[in-house]
Write a structure and sequence with these properties.
204 residues, mainly beta, 12-stranded antiparallel beta sheet
Length: 204
């Protein structure tokens, strides 16, 4: 479960890779972009704290739902839905590890109305000439670490986020093209349904 810890730090998200003639994005513009995502899908590459690399597919369905499907040999699946985040170990029939969605950075992406201007967790809003970076930290729990969100403009896109944990480690997740307005069934994000499907058959 160590590789999943990037989702357990209360914070925001980020992106990178920049087009020519980019400009700094305002918090209002980033909020509008996140609010407009709706249903979307993207491939992702995750660089873990031990420098190992994982890949997979991310699915989002705002508000409130996300699914991270990891490619083999990883045997993990992460679901967000019904106010919870659940991490499944697909090698076992054990119940998933659960966390309240509001206590993870996914909440910032998935909440019904994203408004970064009103977030006291935003501690930095920078621009390097190509990428707009939002740095965030839970003001009540700074020991949890922080997250950097990197966005590009023309058009606005989310490409990567970096989690810096309280132990000095970091995890980077880079997104491919975020394909929006895709069709995603609600059942893909149903934690309880997956628990039932994975439960061992009752013995006679």
């Amino acid at each position: 479960m160590k590789k999943m810890k990037f989702l357990l730090v209360p914070a925001l998200w980020a992106a990178m890779t920049a087009p020519a003639f980019a400009e700094k994005l305002s918090l209002d513009a980033i909020s509008a972009y996140l609010n407009g995502i709706g249903a979307a899908r993207a491939n992702f590459t995750q660089i873990n704290d031990d420098n190992s690399v994982s890949t997979g597919t991310l699915m989002l369905k705002r508000p409130g739902r996300a699914r991270f499907e990891y490619d083999p040999p990883e045997a993990a699946l992460l679901l967000a839905g019904s106010g919870q985040v659940a991490i499944f170990d697909l090698k076992s029939n054990e119940d998933p590890v659960n966390y309240p969605l509001r206590q993870t950075p996914l909440w910032v992406i998935l909440e019904p109305n994203v408004n970064l201007k009103q977030r006291d967790m935003v501690t930095g809003h920078g621009y390097d000439g190509t990428v707009t970076t939002v740095t965030a930290q839970d003001p009540e729990n700074p020991e949890y670490g922080s997250i950097q969100l990197h966005f590009t403009s023309n058009p606005v896109q989310l490409r990567q986020w970096v989690i810096n944990d309280g132990d000095g480690g970091s995890t980077t997740v880079a997104l491919g093209e975020l394909k929006r307005d895709v069709s995603l069934a609600n059942s893909l994000f149903n934690i309880e349904r997956l628990k039932v499907l994975r439960a061992p058959a009752a013995e006679d």
